[in-house]
Amino acid sequence: MIQLKSRLTVIDNSGALVAECIKVLRNARWAEVGDEIVVAVKKARPISDKTSASLSAAKIRKGDVRRAVVVRTKKEIRRPDGRYVRFDDNACVLLNNQQQPLGSRILGLVAAELRFKNWVKIVSLAPRVV
Amino acid sequence: MKIELCNLSGYKIYPANGRTFVSKDSKTFHFLNSKCESLFHQKKNARDLAWTPICRKIARKGISEEVAKKRTRRTVKYNRAVVGASWEAINARRTEKPELRAAARAEAVSKAKEKRKGEAAKKKVARANAPQGEKFNKNQPRAATKVSRSGR
């Protein structure tokens, strides 16, 4: 249940740490796992000239507006077998305009709903899917 | 469908029941109901909650019935001698074969018969040799001895 002003942890290695939702790209108020949102980066890792060469092309700075996909929510998700799963935090992965992840690695686990919403690349990058 | 076990209480969680919680350090916890979930978040230890099977096991509740069932009493047979017959004599009689017993019995019977015959013969001889006058006279007057019927 991510909405305007919701803060999410960024769990890829794009450089951003905390992002704030500014738009839910769905004709709904809330975004759930697997929904795309527009975020403003609120906290980012400091970028030095040395590390910039090894990182991916995009340099994420504080204040950047990017697209992201929600991968974990504190609000429980209903599974087909009737079970509910909920995580301890809200998390997202930053995307570029072609809906590809910005970072090259994902740190932490993601919800299995991503697979059914066709975020295959993220699922394959994730170390663990719950 | 995997039947999970509740992380707090230890009960079985069947499909469509319970909730799963994934913590920040990626550990998965399964809860049977909101009671267990709430207690978990309060950081309660299952060993301190008296109603959980874990606590009951530690306090050894509900085990006494099982233990009582398992104990079966067995009667021990003792070989006892009786006054007048030692154990060996009893055992000998018990293990005696029926043919032997019959033979012994027949022998005893024949012996007894012989003995009786012998005694009868002796009596006859004694009677023949007794003096004449001592023959019993039926017509003799009876002695005045009264034998009361009541037997006093």
TrEMBL record, chain A:
GO MF term list: large ribosomal subunit rRNA binding; structural constituent of ribosome
Record organism: Coemansia javaensis
Listed GO biological process terms: translation
SUPFAM superfamilies: Ribosomal protein L14
Function of the protein: Component of the mitochondrial ribosome (mitoribosome), a dedicated translation machinery responsible for the synthesis of mitochondrial genome-encoded proteins, including at least some of the essential transmembrane subunits of the mitochondrial respiratory chain. The mitoribosomes are attached to the mitochondrial inner membrane and translation products are cotranslationally integrated into the membrane.
Protein name: Large ribosomal subunit protein uL14m
CDD domains in the cross-refs: Ribosomal_uL14 (cd00337)
Keyword annotations from UniProtKB, A to Z: Ribonucleoprotein, Ribosomal protein
TrEMBL record, chain B:
UniProt-listed InterPro entries: L24e/L24_sf, Ribosomal_eL24, Ribosomal_eL24-rel_N, TRASH_dom
Biased composition (Basic and acidic residues): 99-122
Chain positions covered by the region annotation Disordered: 99-152
Highest taxon above the source species: Eukaryota
Keywords from the UniProt entry: Ribonucleoprotein, Ribosomal protein
TRASH domain mapped to chain residues: 6-44
GO MF, one example: structural constituent of ribosome
Pfam families on file: Ribosomal_L24e (PF01246)
Gene Ontology CC: cytosolic large ribosomal subunit
GO biological process, any: cytoplasmic translation
SUPFAM superfamilies, per the entry: Glucocorticoid receptor-like (DNA-binding domain)
CDD domains given in the database record: Ribosomal_L24e_L24 (cd00472)
UniProt keyword annotation of Ribonucleoprotein present: yes
Entry's family note: Belongs to the eukaryotic ribosomal protein eL24 family.
Entries under PANTHER family matching the protein: 60S RIBOSOMAL PROTEIN L24, RIBOSOMAL PROTEIN L24
Protein name: 60S ribosomal protein L24
Phylogenetic classification of the source organism: Eukaryota, Fungi, Fungi incertae sedis, Zoopagomycota, Kickxellomycotina
Protein's gene: RPL24
